[in-house]
Design brief:
The chain is mainly alpha-helical and 229 residues long. It has one domain. It is built from eight helices and no strands. This is DUF4386 domain-containing protein.
Length: 229
C-alpha cells in the first residue's frame, strides 16, 4: 500500500472515530459540542465510564493524527522542506493540545469516583472542579483547532504547488483551513461570528476539504507518487 493511500485511509478512520465518539460516547459530556459549562459539568459528574472511554478514544485519535501528519510531511517535503517541517511541527503541537482533553476527562472521572474527593469536597465544589476541567478542555481544543488548521492550510498549499492532487481540492483546502483558523480567532473579538450558523458553515467547509483529500488519497494516491510505505 502506498504512503498516500495510508494517509488517506488513516484520515478517514480519524474522521469516523471523531463522529462515533461524539455520537456514542461524548454526548452531554463534551463542552466542545455544546459550550454549556454548567450542564456539561453536571453531566460529567454522572458519567465516569464514558469519560474514561472518551479519554482512551482521544489517545487513539492522537495516534491516527500522528500517522496522518507524518505521512503528509513525507509526501510533501520534497516540494518545500521548510514549510512541510513547520506544518508537521504545528500539527503535532495542535494534536498534543487536543490530547489534553483526555487528561481533563480522566481528571473528572477521578473526581467522580475517588473516595478522597467525596471526603474533602461537597457537591458544589465537585461541580466547580468539573466545570474548570470542562473549561480547560474547551480552551485547549480551540487553541489546537487554530494551530492545526494553520498547519493543514500549509499542507494544502504544498499540494497545490506540487499538483500532486487536483488543484480544486487543494485550493479549497487552503481556503477552508485558513477560514476556520481566522474565524475562530476573530470571534473572540467579534461575538457575532460565534453564532451557530456561522460555526456550522465554516466547519462544514473544512469537513468537505478533509473528506475530499482523504478520499482522493485513499482511492487514487497522488500523481506520480512512487514512494511505498
Amino acid at each position: 500500500m502506498s504512503l498516500a493511500r495510508t494517509v488517506g485511509w488513516s484520515q478517514l478512520a480519524l474522521m469516523a472515530l471523531g463522529i462515533l465518539t461524539s455520537v456514542l460516547v461524548a454526548r452531554g459530556i463534551d463542552i466542545n459540542l455544546s459550550a454549556d459549562v454548567e450542564s456539561t459539568a453536571r453531566n460529567m459528574l454522572d458519567a465516569e465510564l464514558r469519560l474514561r472511554a472518551k479519554a482512551y478514544l482521544a489517545c487513539l485519535g492522537f495516534a491516527l493524527t500522528t500517522v496522518v501528519n507524518i505521512g503528509l510531511f513525507m509526501l510533501l517535503r520534497r516540494h518545500g522542506q521548510l514549510l512541510a517541517a513547520a506544518c508537521l511541527t504545528l500539527s503535532l503541537t495542535g494534536a498534543m493540545l487536543s490530547l489534553l482533553g483526555a487528561v481533563f476527562a480522566m481528571n473528572v472521572a477521578e473526581i467522580t469516583s475517588a473516595p478522597a474527593y467525596q471526603a474533602i469536597t461537597d457537591s458544589a465544589q465537585r461541580l466547580m472542579l468539573a466545570g474548570m476541567q470542562a473549561t480547560s478542555d474547551y480552551t485547549s481544543f480551540h487553541l489546537s483547532l487554530v494551530i492545526s488548521c494553520v498547519a493543514q492550510g500549509g499542507f494544502f498549499f504544498l499540494f497545490y504547488r506540487s499538483d500532486l492532487i487536483p488543484r480544486i481540492i487543494s485550493a479549497w483546502g487552503v481556503f477552508a483551513s485558513l477560514l476556520v483558523s481566522t474565524i475562530i480567532v476573530a470571534r473572540d473579538f467579534i461575538p457575532a461570528l460565534g453564532h451557530s450558523s456561522v460555526t456550522i458553515s465554516f466547519m462544514l467547509g473544512n469537513l468537505i476539504a478533509l473528506l475530499s483529500l482523504s478520499l482522493y488519497l485513499g482511492i487514487k494516491g497522488v500523481r506520480g507518487d512512487p514512494a511505498p510505505l
